[in-house]
Design goal:
By secondary structure, the chain is of the alpha/beta class. Helices cover 31% and strands 20% of the residues. It has nine helices and 14 strands. The strands form five sheets. It has a six-stranded parallel β-sheet with strand order 11-10-7-12-13-14. It is globular and about 65 Å long.
Length: 308
């Protein structure tokens, strides 16, 4: 609470990135103080695409020795360039890779019975499916991290890991019981309804929350195994909301993006989530958080405003 949040909208057309808003800098939710003395963030009532509202005049007494510092002055003082600098810093470094992290790899994986070899192909029905012509993103290597989507015996994990090298994919193997509690009990039975503005009584389970934390930590461990300082980490969807926080504990300068392919609920619905602050604070560890619609962005920003 009391920390300004800067943000910016971008346009997607038929699932493809088009452009950022047509102005320099970022929108800002400033910090304000209520009559009770508590600090909170102010969410703009109406945002208009490509129109950056003028910042409010700073309030300070004429008798004060010096006016309050401007955002530019603060940025200069602490050696940063603000969130606009952070957004531009999401570019991949020289020689770096784009590490795409999702719960399930966008691959179809089966085991040939006759030869016991692995048959692997891109799953074109996946939101993250890589097209044949997209071998590289603007000349950068793309590395995929996620679960294989099929049950793999412990004795077969090494052979599958080796087979996935050809697809620049690194598998994450979860214990079956942990994966069941993580996905079925927390992601599908709890987070999915909430993120679609449906509150289900008794859906939250602390044991399921522990499994969610455990899986996110395992994903972070796998990313750290392959991460280089020039890499860009791009996490996807509500399965991995804690990932930015776990990663920054290990690499304080990592560049991390997070994109939600699901809706984000209205703030009054999200307030029903027992671990809402843990989820929000972890998401805010990302350099950039992306949403499908303005409506979902507004729900997220309003939820941030309501944090203690």
């Amino acid at each position: 609470a009391g920390v300004s949040i800067q943000y910016k909208y971008l346009l997607f057309c038929e699932g493809r990135f088009e452009r950022w808003e047509a102005f320099d800098g970022n929108r800002t939710i400033g910090a304000a103080t209520s009559r009770a003395g508590s600090r909170h963030s102010l969410v703009p009532p109406d945002d208009e695409l490509d129109v950056l509202p003028a910042p409010p005049e700073p309030r300070w007494s004429a008798g004060a020795s010096t006016p309050p510092p401007t955002p530019a002055g603060l940025a200069e003082a602490d050696g940063t360039t603000g969130v606009s600098g952070q957004l531009s810093a999401l570019d991949v470094g020289e020689g770096g890779s784009v590490i795409v992290v999702s719960y399930i790899l966008p691959l179809l994986i089966t085991r040939e019975r006759e030869t016991a070899s692995w048959a692997i192909d891109w799953n074109l029905d996946s939101v993250l499916a890589r097209r044949a012509s997209a071998g590289r993103a603007e000349g950068k290597r793309v590395l995929w991290i996620g679960c294989p989507g099929v049950a793999v015996a412990e004795a077969d994990r090494a052979s599958l890991t080796e087979a996935l090298v050809h697809y620049s994919a690194v598998p994450v193997f979860l214990e079956p019981e942990t994966q069941k509690v993580f996905y079925t009990d927390f992601c599908r039975a709890f987070l999915w309804p909430v993120f679609h503005n449906v509150i289900k009584a008794g859906a939250y389970s602390h044991s399921a929350w522990r499994a969610y934390c455990t899986v996110n930590r395992q994903f972070a461990d796998k990313v750290v195994e392959v991460y280089e300082p020039s890499d860009l980490i791009w996490a996807h969807d509500y399965h991995l909301l804690l990932l930015p926080s776990f990663l920054l504990r290990r690499h304080r300068t990592a560049h991390i993006g997070l994109f939600l392919h699901s809706p984000f609920p209205a703030s009054d619905v999200f307030r029903s989530v027992a671990v809402r602050e843990e989820l929000l604070r972890a998401m805010l560890h990302a350099d950039m958080v992306g949403f499908l619609l303005f409506e979902y962005t507004r729900g997220f920003l309003t939820s941030c405003k309501l944090m203690n």
